[in-house]
Predict the 3D structure of the following.
Amino acid sequence: MKNTIKPILLAIAVLIGSCTDLQEQILDESLSGGGQESDLVRGVVAPAYGMLPEFYRHTRYFAVQEISTDEAILPYRGGRDWGDNGIYLELHQHTWGPVHSNIQQCWDFLTVMISRTVTAINVLTPIADADTEARVFLAEVRGLRAFYNMIVLDLWGIAFKKDDPGELSEILRGDEAVEYIRTEFEAVIPELRTDVGPGRLTKGGVYGLLARLHLNAAVWRDPYAASFNFTEADMNKVIDYSNRVINDGQYSLSPEFFANFNNDNHDNPELVFAVDQRPDLNGHNRMSYFSMSDNFYGNPLFPRGNGTDGPGITSDWYRSWVQAYGETDPAEADARFYWERMIIPADSAIAAEDFEVNRGIYRGLQYGLQNTGRRLPFIQTPDGRYKIGPLRDWRRAEENAFVDFIEDINFTAEGSDYNTGFRVEKYQWSKSSDDGRNKGEADLVIVRLADCYMMRAEAKLRMGDTGGALSDVNLVRASRTARPAVTPPPLASMDLDILFRERGFEFYWEHQRRTDMIRFGKYEDTWTEKTDSDVQKRVFPIPQSAIDGASAAEGYLVQNPGY
């Protein structure tokens, strides 16, 4: 098909009066499969995918899904950094309101993302019968619309049913919303391909998302329930759709756990659906830089590419590892906790091409590239290698001030210092990033095969098949064989608390913790700096600006209870 579709780059707002200046770089060749870009891809399909990298960044989807939980905490660092008018404190303490910035950003992105899929569907539908490429892309963008709505349902308890760009969306809640999303996913399966992932939506991707939909359906049908009704029908669907991914044959569990988050993970067979990133087009390195010290540098070739001293892990979540392994250090028991990649030679100097950063949970005194001041060139040996040693903390005047992470982290002045909280480096630091923030290379995981096993395990467990659940969880644990000494040992028993803990070990920093905590009945618990137990906080407030913008349609957009 040539020159039959004009480029369409304008997103039509989902709600009356909704507008935004959001921008993205469009990743044309990742959709078309090569350098040749059709008008179809450039005009309507790329915009439907194009905002995913920016949505899956540290201050948007990550913030609401992780910092609002027992896993991540972001204090006002040193009394001056990451204060942002208290928005991260509010997220963690569940004291947010209808004008919260992170929540607003997620809403703005998702409403525009849904709008772009509606635009694409309307352009593709008239030509799909006669054009194979258009038919496949139509299935993809229709599936994306269902996926984006599934996130909206999880965050705000509503979904937007919209087919005509010129008409107002129908607001769906509860069972109506779940059924709409389900039928949309199921409708596109026949036309989806299996060989274009993980950056594009495939049959496997939709199967994984359908499993996730049915696993959470009890929550999304009745988010304020005292207890959730996980029906046998839903759990059987979780098993069915998980099986379709597991038995597909093109996916396999990665022997090295952290390879799922490497810069070259685009071809990793464990990834089922992911956010496609390219350093010179749309990639960001925020998932790597966000937690790391300001004095940490990820690449000797770029002396301005440092971290930011963002969130640490709570002591509560760290203690779940300690309790699981007793007297054995988690780093010596579980490959998912830590991977030592910075092997320091006897003369403490490393060639640029050999430099790697450690992965997983960072604790205690940190080692890295040596310099004579913040963002100054690194110290080199006469043969051009880079000196490695204890990381100097250049924010402090003392000669012996080093980056030394401690476990305790909270919102007091002492607990908010730059050394508080163990840190996370799950995604590999981009080799292309010259400032630490830009040019990300690693695809951001949405669904991977391990999640299909773990979802299947949960469905089995909720139906009373404890042995089947234990087998699935142990299969995932046993698959991490790249470093045999730390392949997690098999578990001897299984219950919901153990499975919840195991999901925390497997999926930390992957935008899932809030959803998991709600489903397992843990979101109203108490943890570091959080005591709120209001069940209405299971969903976020609809941003006040959206309600104000929709005011011309009386009663159209109603605020969620409790806000």
In short: The longest helix spans residues 101-128. Residues 100 and 207 are 34 Å apart (CA to CA).
